[in-house]
Amino acid sequence: MNAFMKNFLRNKGAVAGLILLSIVVIVAVIAPFIYPQSPWTMVQRPFQPPMALDGFYFGTDVLGRDIGAGLAHGARVSLIVGLVSTLVALLIGLPIGALAGYFGGIWDDILMRFTEFFQTIPSFALAIVIVAILQPSLSGIVLAISIVSWPPVARLVRGEFLSLRSREYVQAAILSGLSPMNIIFRQILPNAISPIIVLASLMVASAILLESALSFLGLGDPNVMSWGYMIGAGRTVLRQAWWICVFPGLAILFTVLALNLIGEGLNDALNPRLARKGR
Amino acid sequence: MKKALLSGLIGAAMVATAAMAEPKSGGRINVVVQPEPPGLMLGLIQNGPTQNVAGNIYESLLRYDKDLNPQPSLAKEWTVSDDGLTYTFKLHSGVKWHDGEDFSADDVVFSADVFLRETHARFRVGLEHVESITAPDAETVVFQLKNPFGPFLGMFEAGTMPIVPKHIYEGTSFKDNPANATPIGTGPFKFEEWKKGSYIHLVKNEDYYIDGLPYLDEIYWQVIPDAAARAVAFETGQIDVLPGGSVENFDVPRLAGMDNVCTTTEGWEFFAPHSFMWVNNREGWTAKPKFRQALMYAMNREFMKDVIWNGYAEVAHSPVSSKTRFYDTDVAKYEFDPEKAKALLDEVGYDGTPVRILPLPYGETWNRWAEAVKQNLDAVGVKTEIVATDVAGWNQKLSDWDFDLGFTYLYQYGDPALGVGRSYISSNIAKGSPWNNVSGYENAEVDQLFADAALKASAAERQELYTKAQAQIVEDVAAAWLLELSFPTIYRCDVKDLVTTAIGVNDGFKDAWLDR
Amino acid sequence: MQTLRYILMRLAKAAVILFAIVILNFCLIHAAPGDPAAVMAGEAGASDELFLQQLREKFGLDQPFHIQLWKYISGLLQLDMGYSYRQDAPVWDLIMDRLPATLLLTGAAFVLSIVLGVVAGVMAAVRVGKWADTAITVAALLLYATPLFWVALMAILLFSVQLGWFPSYGMESIGSELTGFRYWLDVAHHLVLPATTLGLFFTAIYARMTRASFLETAAEDFVKTARAKGLSEGRIARRHILRNAILPVVTLAGLQAGQIVGGAVLTETVFAWPGIGRLMFDALLQRDYNVLLGVFLISSAMVLLFNLITDLIYLLVDPRIELNT
């Protein structure tokens, strides 16, 4: 663990990413304290540019809502969308990949055809259709993102399981009569976890991007203030009021950037052999 | 009884004097059409974009000036009998269909009696008052009514009663006729090409029966799906005309402020778009009249007008638009008064059950509007939840009565009997359509008032009945009226005489010309 | 012979997958609230029971679900993708009308991103650790993290509105009646902005992947051997490293080529590009079932096709790979 930390902290990009992400997380946590009012409340005149009014550092939007409040509360929503949809995707992808990789044979064939099947349908188009069916709501959006992003998890996990299954310690565990569940969760999974963590960090990032793209097409949930929703709402007034759209855009940019940097850092730290080659 | 002999020649002279300069012929014009219409056969499809484009291909017997007075179109003159039962139209001679066939009174009879009776839901309502439609000779059509019907002369507009070619449609399955893809009308412009997803190209009808018209050589209706992209296209000079509603309201002042750009809110008088929320009168808290009154007091509609509609609207006080005939100027008004709203909520004992708001999925303006309503209601303590949908979902929820407050806007068609009564009379309560009495408002007295008023021929008598009906409906808050909308048309100032009638650009290119 | 058998096996598998996709999509889209008749009624501003009933009868929506499904599938087996309720035209014609525009857009973006991405990746790799490497890596990271539609909006503001260099929307100057070379020049002019914005995102991915793959290959033994033989660095980079480093890039390219439809929805919306992605999105909102199913079918078929092509390219690049069905 120590070597891991050392490796990780040696990577400047990863540290920068960690700092950026920490800021976002802190803002998300303390949002209710710095902006106690709902971000939907119309608190000032509309279209006030940043810094024009005391306490409104980011300006106000078309209805006179505080962009700052939207950014802070939006951080919570965007992070939650990213995290929850990644978790759900892992919940779908992990068992499928694990079963396919562990049992092999006909199981592998069936499960991998199933995965391939989902990879064949254009993912963004599928996400749009699912949101249209469920109608735009936070849970619908999270589900749509999860459904289109689990196949890579399944493929990765399967690959790991395939190679780990032939290891001696696994073979020994099988011979000693441990149950398959026990072997999968106790023996193999802990050893396959590092590439999964790396993939997960990148998935959080792309989930946030995907949510913003859905919002942009008008498929966002109008009851929760997310960054994507702010951009979708602000883009029609981009010419008069750049700040409505630019700040949430930057927030997405930095968060996704941070997650990518951390993902790379994790990758390098967890696979030190590759890392040295990579730089 | 109304005695009317209206000469078309007077109207034509009025239109002519409106044009200051001598019109020039020639030129091409680029217009936005949004969204891409599902088809251009106006007899089958009457949604906004179809009317925009096809209103220049098809014609009806009349047009209407901005005060809703009838003007000649295919009919050059018309008379109404003293008893208000016989309407006789004299048609222009020498009119040809775009395919070269002769147009005659038979086409009119076929369109009204056969074609539109089958295909046109709104026109069917008017047909109920019609006893017979006949063509005594090739240039005369007579509509014989069963009973006097006050607004009847308002039904001869291209979107309500488009005249379609009998020689193409008679004996065929109207909806499956392959000719629907290449519409044939009598109008000033002919269909040339439709590149799906890109543009619709209309060209001048060289054989148009009015000499010299139209002035323009061709019109390109361009499809640009994104509102911001439409604004940019206008800014960069690729588009000459933005019909009302094709850019977001927030963009209007900026575009209007550009050099050589004119705007007008005229050309919507016939439609008088009236926005309101259906309020579910059947169940939940919204079933209580006092609760509904509280909603009205809670809403800051001046703010909605100024901020969300950029001032391009008026607060709506009544089910009848102030631009429509028989609006009662003395109708009771619900001013913004949160305290009164709270008091009313206390009085009915509101328990905090959330109220579901269904926004209209027509773009960002409408989303902001729903958010503003939500904030207003939250402020007086009414819990709300916005239910987002697309057009199909919105339609289904309203049709199945699965809503508490549902945004919509409706056209008034110049007369309460055509555009208002349908939303409030109890015989019009039925699942399956978002365009009937969706609120489920039932009041026998109101039913009777609307029924009587439609059949009176005297304007004074009708006014009296409609005034009573408005007072009752407003008292009951059968629906939550929001704003009388204006959809400004934005165009280059060198496009002249674009909006000359009460339906604006829908038939505007007949007279339009370019001063270039 | 073995290759042919392999291809046939893959095609048979693809047919099964396509069949499953058709059924799944059919169920999905019918589960969405409302139907095409309701949408058309919703837009018409007036409707009654008769109006809706007429539409549903015409569209065949009054029949039980399984009959509709059966009709659709038996139509497909006769290579008939059905009729668009809304646009009153055969789905096949509609798709073929729009497909060239999308292929042009995504094809241009694809070529741009591969060329630019591989060049940038190699440049970064051979200058590893220097400022050029850092600059390219940072630029790639930033591009990768920026929402695509956002870049598109900014590009329009800068290049169309401010500078006036490129048109902001559409595929051609409408009504210009240009022909031949001048027509294609006009289309190319319209293509610049959308293709670049769409391509930039993938450029970032290719650049990062090429760089990583190049560095990894450069450390392999056979490169050391080549160097020991005294070959020039440029020759080693081109002939030895790049050739082997390109494999993962080919895989990714296959994936990207397959996803051309979905990925173009945003770009086509912002730039009013009359392509198939926009057709799909409109069909979804309008519940134009047959069109939506048709687009899904065609695009899924393309994914499968490109997967197959990718695998065959692999075979050419590296004959050691087994044919594993």
From TrEMBL, chain A:
InterPro entries: BP-dependent_transpt_permease, MetI-like, MetI-like_sf, OppC_N. It is found in: Cell membrane. GO terms for cellular component: plasma membrane. Its main location: membrane. CDD domains: TM_PBP2. The chain crosses the membrane at residues 12-35, 79-103, 124-149, 169-189, 196-220, 240-263. GO terms for biological process: peptide transport; protein transport; transmembrane transport. It is a multi-pass membrane protein. Keywords: Cell membrane, Membrane, Peptide transport, Protein transport, Transmembrane, Transmembrane helix, Transport. Pfam families: BPD_transp_1, OppC_N. Residues 75-263 form the ABC transmembrane type-1 domain. Belongs to the binding-protein-dependent transport system permease family. This is ABC transporter permease protein. It comes from Roseovarius nubinhibens (strain ATCC BAA-591 / DSM 15170 / ISM).
TrEMBL record, chain B:
Transmembrane segments: none annotated. Keywords: Signal. Coiled coil: none annotated. Its main location: periplasm. It is found in: Periplasm. The keyword Signal applies. CDD domains: PBP2_NikA_DppA_OppA_like_13. One of its GO terms (cellular component) is ATP-binding cassette (ABC) transporter complex. One of its GO terms (biological process) is peptide transport. SUPFAM superfamilies: Periplasmic binding protein-like II. Residues 70-416 form the Solute-binding protein family domain. It comes from the Bacteria. GO terms for molecular function: peptide transmembrane transporter activity. Residues 1-21 form the signal peptide. InterPro entries: Peptide/Ni-bd (IPR030678), SBP_5 (IPR039424), SBP_5_dom (IPR000914). Belongs to the bacterial solute-binding protein 5 family. PANTHER family: D,D-DIPEPTIDE-BINDING PERIPLASMIC PROTEIN DDPA-RELATED (PTHR30290:SF38), PERIPLASMIC BINDING COMPONENT OF ABC TRANSPORTER (PTHR30290). This is ABC transporter substrate-binding protein. It comes from Roseovarius nubinhibens (strain ATCC BAA-591 / DSM 15170 / ISM).
UniProtKB/TrEMBL annotation, chain C:
It is found in: Cell membrane. Keywords: Cell membrane, Membrane, Transmembrane, Transmembrane helix, Transport. One of its GO terms (biological process) is transmembrane transport. One of its GO terms (cellular component) is plasma membrane. The keyword Nucleotide-binding does not apply. Pfam families: BPD_transp_1, BPD_transp_1_N. Residues 99-314 form the ABC transmembrane type-1 domain. The chain crosses the membrane at residues 12-32, 103-126, 138-167, 187-207, 245-271, 291-317. Gene3D superfamilies: MetI-like. It is a multi-pass membrane protein. InterPro entries: BPD_transp_1_N (IPR045621), MetI-like (IPR000515), MetI-like_sf (IPR035906). The keyword Oxidoreductase does not apply. Belongs to the binding-protein-dependent transport system permease family. This is ABC transporter permease. It comes from Roseovarius nubinhibens.
